[in-house]
């Protein structure tokens, strides 16, 4: 029988944009952990009268005790980024810092002459992070007080303030979680980390100098009772695709049969639009990204149990979706696009974190790849699931599932038109946050609505379908972008804006502002589909048109690439594409 103390997952995040996605993921787990605002949809519930939590927190979190005797509960996580990529975050945060020692006490000075110390200027904390620290101090005395008066959250205008993922992070991490690649500086045009083989060499160098695998990876993995799998988030358009390849090769030596799901992110900067593609710099940069992505796709597919490519959405890709009218997403902001991708990953992963209906990662991935040759998956999302109040019947399922000819799902794994016919091989559906009707006379009931919704999705799209229903909506902490509109506080369609009576010398009815949305219903779909072959064919075409001799940097280092390597990957990707042929 499954117990909550077993079946842990270790997450590895590689690269700046992956950490943008990961920060949203971890922030959602502990909505408002140390402030005066308590979300009703937070995963963590407390008190004798609190409902039993739906999510097994111990799957991705770990308990510990610091040297000062402080009990901790931190993500089971390894974070990799370039120098300058961690922003204001320090390796030793307030939970783990030793207040009895000066940071310089650990330095052994053997030089007896004058010694000068040089320190880089600290990355400034924005208003949001400063306020978070103040609220933490103010509410330490209230940590055991679960019912706190709900107040309107201030708007910190994070769209303008977020430049790095640490600018909206609200989580304490274990010191062993942070791993910095000191050979490369973030956003350094003179020595960019933009070649697949650079990542392979950087992994070797990091292990020689820091031994992060033996020291940090083993620390997290070997303290687990029974690891059910590893969750990788990595960028694939730069050197981190090569870094992830080497990392996974090392893991496979120690864990040859353990499940690994890898989410690979393409460039959020959108260099593929026509306006920039044909300029000399962007054309060269785009070709390098295409080459990196192709090598990453092939290698990460070989080493993972399931590889899921993900594309940050572009501005014109959401216009046709029925739920996009409630979403004002700025595709130029990684802070925004990463939030959308994170919601899809977080919701899909509930299958192997759900306490009521737990499915081990190995079982989920084996069902997704039941043919045993479809190791490239696809992730789709409706964010939010556009439903109304139970009293209004939630909404017409036929209109919710299909908007014209287009599926309600936003395909995060391909750039294809939503109206393109596809053949689903298998799918795992997770619907969450559909509220319960308060009056039994309302029709349809919640269970009837969900059954009709899932039946419709199975009939239209699926052969083999897995269904999961989660009561808890997707939480939106104050660190999340405020890009929803036309929704109430619970993320349901607000058909009738509330009227408020105000008295200022005379009575007048005014539209009251819609309350800040604190959670939203969501539906995700993790699948294998024939659409994947189009993505592979695009990458094959890129390999055919790129002359490796024009990019001598790829031949540098111990893991330099040759034209034979390109040819081999191209031929093997032909084989991968054929697997997803409709025939």
Give a quick rundown of the structure:
It is found in: Mitochondrion. The chain has 583 residues and is an alpha/beta fold.
Would you mind describing this structure in some detail?
- Involved in the partitioning of the mitochondrial organelle and mitochondrial DNA (mtDNA) inheritance.
- Keywords: Coiled coil, Mitochondrion.
- It comes from Jimgerdemannia flammicorona.
- By secondary structure, the protein is α/β, with parallel strands linked by helices.
- It has two domains: 468 residues, Tubulin/FtsZ, GTPase domain (Rossmann fold); 43 residues, no CATH class.
- The chain contains 14 helices and 19 strands.
- The strands form six sheets. Strands 5-4-1-6-7-8 form a six-stranded parallel beta sheet, sandwiched between helices.
- Helix 6 runs parallel beside helix 8.
Topology:
Blueprint: E1 8-14, H1 16-29, E2 61-65, E3 71-75, E4 77-83, H2 127-139, H3 158-161, E5 178-185, H4 196-209, H5 212-222, E6 227-235, H6 240-254, E7 259-265, H7 274-277, H8 280-303, E8 306-310, H9 334-348, H10 361-368, E9 378-382, H11 397-401, E10 402-403, E11 406-407, E12 410-411, E13 424-432, H12 446-461, E14 464-470, E15 474-475, E16 499-503, E17 507-511, E18 519-520, E19 522-529, H13 532-545, H14 563-579
Parallel strand pairs: 1-4, 1-6, 4-5, 6-7, 7-8, 13-14
Antiparallel strand pairs: 2-3, 9-12, 9-19, 10-11, 13-19, 15-18, 16-17
């Amino acid at each position: 029988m499954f117990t909550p103390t077993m079946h842990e997952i270790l997450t590895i995040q590689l690269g700046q944009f992956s950490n943008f996605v990961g920060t949203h993921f971890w922030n959602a787990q502990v909505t408002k952990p140390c402030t005066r605002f308590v979300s009703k949809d937070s995963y963590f519930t407390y008190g004798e009268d609190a409902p039993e939590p739906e999510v097994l927190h111990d799957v991705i979190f770990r308990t510990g005790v610091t040297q000062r005797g402080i009990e901790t509960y931190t993500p089971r996580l390894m974070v990799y980024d370039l120098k300058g990529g961690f922003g204001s975050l320090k390796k030793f945060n307030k939970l783990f810092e030793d207040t009895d020692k000066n940071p310089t006490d650990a330095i052994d000075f053997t030089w007896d002459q004058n010694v000068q110390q040089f320190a880089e200027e600290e990355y400034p904390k924005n208003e949001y992070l400063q306020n978070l620290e103040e609220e933490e101090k103010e509410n330490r005395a209230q940590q055991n007080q679960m019912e706190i008066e709900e107040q309107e959250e201030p708007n910190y205008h994070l769209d303008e303030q977020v430049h790095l993922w640490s600018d909206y992070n609200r989580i304490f991490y274990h010191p062993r979680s942070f791993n910095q690649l000191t050979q490369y500086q973030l956003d350094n045009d003179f020595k960019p980390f933009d070649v697949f083989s650079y990542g392979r060499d950087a992994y070797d160098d990091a292990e020689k100098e820091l031994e992060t695998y033996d020291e940090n990876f083993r620390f997290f993995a070997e303290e687990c009772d029974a690891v059910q799998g590893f969750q990788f988030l990595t960028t694939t358009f730069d050197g981190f695709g090569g870094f992830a390849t080497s990392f996974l090769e090392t893991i496979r030596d120690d864990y040859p049969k353990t499940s690994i799901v890898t989410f690979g992110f393409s460039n959020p900067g959108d260099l593929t639009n026509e306006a920039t593609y044909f300029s000399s710099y962007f054309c060269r940069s785009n070709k390098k990204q295409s080459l990196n992505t192709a090598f990453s796709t092939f290698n990460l597919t070989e080493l993972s149990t399931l590889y899921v490519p993900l594309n940050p959405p572009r501005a014109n890709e959401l216009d046709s979706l029925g739920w996009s009218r409630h979403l004002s997403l700025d595709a130029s902001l990684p802070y925004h696009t990463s939030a959308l991708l994170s919601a899809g990953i977080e919701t899909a992963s509930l299958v192997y974190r759900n306490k009521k209906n737990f499915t081990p990662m190995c079982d989920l991935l084996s069902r997704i790849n039941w043919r045993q040759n479809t190791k490239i998956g696809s992730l789709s999302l409706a964010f939010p699931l556009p439903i109304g109040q139970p009293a209004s019947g939630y909404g017409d399922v036929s209109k919710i599932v299909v908007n014209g000819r287009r599926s309600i799902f936003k395909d995060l794994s391909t750039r294809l038109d939503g109206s393109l016919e596809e053949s689903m091989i298998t799918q795992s559906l997770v619907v969450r946050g559909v509220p319960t009707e308060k009056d039994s006379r309302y029709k349809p009931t919640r269970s009837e609505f969900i059954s009709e919704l899932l039946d419709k999705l199975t009939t239209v799209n699926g052969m083999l379908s897995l269904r999961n229903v989660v009561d808890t909506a997707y939480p939106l902490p104050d660190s999340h972008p405020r890009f929803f509109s036309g929704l109430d506080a619970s993320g349901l369609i607000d058909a009738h804006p509330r009227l408020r009576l105000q008295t200022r010398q005379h009575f007048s009815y005014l539209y009251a502002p819609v309350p800040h949305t604190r959670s939203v219903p969501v539906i995700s779909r993790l699948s294998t589909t024939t659409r994947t072959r189009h993505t592979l064919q695009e990458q094959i075409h890129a390999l055919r048109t790129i002359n490796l001799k024009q990019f001598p940097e790829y031949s540098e280092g111990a893991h330099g690439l040759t034209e034979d390597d390109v040819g081999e990957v191209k031929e093997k990707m032909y084989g991968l594409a054929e697997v997803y042929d409709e025939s």
